[in-house]
Amino acid sequence: MKYFSDNEQGMPPRTLTEINVAIWNGIVLIINEFIANSSLAASFPERCYDSGEICGCDEAALGDGIKSIIPNLGMGLNRLTEPIVSPFGIDIEAQDINTYAVLDLVEYIHHNIKDVRQIGNYHTFFKHYHYCIDDRGANRKVFQEKINELFERNGLNYTLTDAGQIERVVPLPLNLIIHRVVNTKDPELNRLVSDAAGKIRLPKLEDRKLALDKLWDAFERSKTYFLEDGKVDKRKSVDRVLDNLSGNDANFRLLLNNECLTLTKIGNDFQIRHYEKGKIAIENSDEIDYLFYRMFSYINLFSKCID
Hints:
Strand content: 5-15%
Mean pLDDT: 89
Protein name: HEPN AbiJ-N-terminal domain-containing protein
Strand order of the largest sheet: 1-2
InterPro entries: AbiJ_NTD4
Helix content: 40-55%
Structural class: mainly alpha
Number of strands: 10
Radius of gyration: 26 Å
Distance between the termini: 47 Å
């Protein structure tokens, strides 16, 4: 749903990477809604003492499931109080929120939501209805929409996909280019690029660093794309690659040659594929996005012009 301020000012930028108290409380509110409508009853059934039929969600079983699968969440499905800053600058009652664990929780809940259908009449003695499972994915879709609205309105840089996986919201130019399928005659090169495109969307910084590793592996493999009499001669292969990509335009070939030298130097100097002491660390998502976009632009040109 769009509100007045959205039309006037637009949505907030999706730059927030940590889940705060307000977002956590919103997630708890949404989950409690799906507990109340028995969408989680299939996985965590509470059964009628009289008939044995499902009559709702067993919240204790749900809590046990969450603790066993996401042990680092460190808290139950309870709303938190906003921390109060004392005159001495100390947060009173501040609680640490493990962002990755909370994102795991969202995926876990989505996975366990099922559609249910009310059966029979109201059980007046125990004051509940009975349900059967009639799963068509409708409740999972509603859960996804509510979670994504919460994330978007708070500028959180994540989204819940149709497959129930949390992905990072990548910048639009990068998102457009990584959706292009790289399809060369080298299956291993294609796989490396595909792996990189998948990992760059993941929430954890470590996964996105691995995306750079995969992409630079693909770059190095592209240098040996052409064989000379069935053997690898990197220098001759690179020359043929540059000839193909430049279309015999000398100025563009020089530009591409310089770009390849620069990309090679970046891979050697920074912590990409090499993690020896003295290599330059990559510290944040902006640096990763820049390097990924720069390399993927070259790989994209390579895939379109090489065959």
